[in-house]
Amino acid sequence: MIVYLLKRLAVLLASVAAAGVAVFAFMAVLPGDPAEIALGVNATPEAVADLRARFGTDRPPVTQFLDWFGGLVHGDFGTSYVTSSPIGPQIADRFGVTVVLVLGGMVVALLVAVPAGTYAAVHHRDPVGAAISAVSQVGIAVPAFLAGILLVFVFAVKAQALPSGGYVPIADDPAEWLRSLLLPWLSLGLVQGAVLTRYVRSAVLDVMREDYLRTARAKGRGRMGALWRHGLRNASIPVVTVLGLQLATLLIGAVVVERVFVIPGLGDLLLNGVAGRDLLLVQGVVMVLVAAVLLINFVVDVCYAALDPRLRGAR
Amino acid sequence: MLTVDGLGVRAGDLELVREVSFGIGPGERVGLIGESGSGKSLTALALMGLLPDGVTASGTARLGGRDLVGVPERRLKDLRGRTVSMVFQEPMTALNPLMRVGAQVAEVMTLHGVAAGRARERAAELLGRVRLPDPERIARSYPHQLSGGQRQRVMLAIALANEPDLLICDEPTTALDVTVQKQMLELIAEVAPALLFITHDLAVVASLCERVLVMYGGRVVESGPLREVFKHPRHRYTEGLLAASRLPPRGTRLATIPGSVPAAGRFPGGCVFRDRCAHATETCETAPELTAPELTAPDLTGPEPRGDGHAFACWHPRR
């Protein structure tokens, strides 16, 4: 178990380092020099060279990379070339909002998918089970931002029950904070929940055909008792895989939903950075997103080991 | 003790098992033999109340005064694992891969009212009783750490945990090595209370059982004491089955039964074996009853054993 975790941790750290190189290299080959952008088209070559020296972009790329990546380790993302303010605190602020948004969406997805998928599997011969499959099929076809707009139309415009957008920090007013996040959570969660429902359904169906479920019934467990005690944990293994992929998708997909609901998250910051040609900011945000996805994969691996004893000893 | 009368199993319009009747006395070991697709496993699952969805049983089966067929699931749950237990064919997939072996043995006891602590102790005892080495360690293992033979012993320990009246084994040794198979059979013979043993391996039946039921096409075509049926088979199907299991002298062809077992529901009307039987005549279009020889064999001559319960369903039995 310890060996497995250490190996996974090593893989995680190596991946983050490799991702750092990739993100840096990608931003470096993009056309556009920060100093030229900052000074505009009428700048003298001397002024540009002077500013480059100040930004440090006249140094060799390897030095720049080591300086940037070394800073990341301490939480220092550098200082924006455009606004001259430190990037780290901005990202930290925004990242918290996005994490809350994504995790809340995932919780909604799970609350929808686990009962609905399990019910659809257990009752796969009945009309209700088939109806759940059909509805989840429709849900898959709806993009999250469209679901968001529909939800805003119903709950904010028609019913006037919830705000159509905006974000209130939890420290200011917890009740308003909750109200401001409900619709974003629902629009992310319902769509992902529809996708997840199908995976939960097929995982539970697979498990229901397993011999050990028949063994459990031969011991004297009822149909549902056997499924509960012996089925759900087994069925959760394939679902965790999908969950990891979905979390990563949500994290990136939150960019759009943050726009729809005017939420100051990481996606919002990224779009602002791109619009303002704030290269170092964009580089920092992309790095954080990539690292978060890698971290999710690591957590999924840890979950596998926690769930399945066959993985613990083997590797 | 177990009395099965007119047991039938059907899936919608398909009749899979028909009119199966037999009894098993206390401590008696009965073999149920036949080719794949003859309805042996369905008969066993019907007795356990574990038929797949959409498959239903009819008729009666009583074990120690309690009904096994046509009873609500709630009542059957109480009997399963306590009064009647079953060991399945495939040991590799019959245990939950995510749960320690000891917990899986203990579970069958806690389900039927044994306190958790006591069940844990008993689990280790039982693992020792099925002759697993170092039962304490086995109890802490996960199924993937055990071999197929060891897992089947665990299954047997689970089946025996509540000291059931009847043990049903559905080809429990088919997936095992021959040497492991032998040990397993000896163990079953030693620990089983009354036993219903399902197999297509005649040698296994011969070494284990006192009485035998031969199934074909979802019916019992012949039944009786093991020696009697194996030495003097009367039904033409039993005759073919026994001939096929004998090793022929070098250079001669292996005896086989012509044709193959039809798909469920494709068996002929009348005698189910008549399309594969060399002795079939027009008479065989009417289904023969399973009865004792002196009553159903008008063409029978010569001295025959009597009163030993040797019965068969054939119009043209072997003499």
* Shape verdict of chain A: globular
Distance between the termini of chain A: 9 Å
* Helical run tally of chain B: 12
Mean pLDDT of chain A: 89
Radius of gyration of chain B: 21 Å
Structure description:
The complex is a heterodimer of chains A (315) and B (319). Chain A is mainly α and 315 residues long. Chain A folds into two domains: 2-87, no CATH class; 88-314, MetI-like (MetI-like fold), CATH 1.10.3720.10. Chain A is built from 13 helices and no strands. Chain A starts with a helix and ends with a helix. In chain A, 33% of the residues are buried. In chain B, helix 4 crosses helix 5 (116-129) and helix 7 (148-160) runs parallel beside helix 8. The longest helix of chain B is centred in the middle third of the chain and has 14 residues, at 116-129. The interface between A and B is medium-sized, with 23 and 32 residues.
Supply the key terms.
heterodimer; A: 315 residues; mainly alpha; MetI-like fold; 2 domains; 13 helices; B: 319 residues; alpha/beta; Rossmann fold; seven-stranded mixed sheet; four-stranded antiparallel sheet; 12 helices
In short:
With 315 residues, chain A is an all-alpha fold.
Helix/strand layout:
The complex is a heterodimer of chains A (315) and B (319).
Chain A: H1 2-29, H2 34-39, H3 45-55, H4 61-73, H5 87-122, H6 127-141, H7 144-158, H8 174-208, H9 211-219, H10 223-261, H11 266-275, H12 279-307, H13 309-314
Helix pairs in contact in A: 1-12, 5-6, 5-8, 5-10, 5-11, 6-8, 7-8, 7-10, 8-10, 9-10, 10-11, 10-12, 11-12
Chain B: E1 2-11, E2 14-24, E3 29-33, H1 40-48, E4 55-63, E5 66-67, H2 73-79, E6 84-87, H3 91-94, H4 101-110, H5 116-129, H6 135-140, H7 148-160, E7 166-170, H8 178-191, E8 194-199, H9 202-208, E9 211-216, E10 219-225, H10 226-231, H11 236-245, H12 293-296, E11 311-312
Parallel strand pairs in B: 3-8, 3-9, 6-7, 7-8
Antiparallel strand pairs in B: 1-2, 1-4, 4-5, 9-10, 10-11
Membrane topology (chain A): Multi-pass membrane protein
Pfam families (chain A): BPD_transp_1, BPD_transp_1_N
Keywords (chain A): Cell membrane, Membrane, Transmembrane, Transmembrane helix, Transport
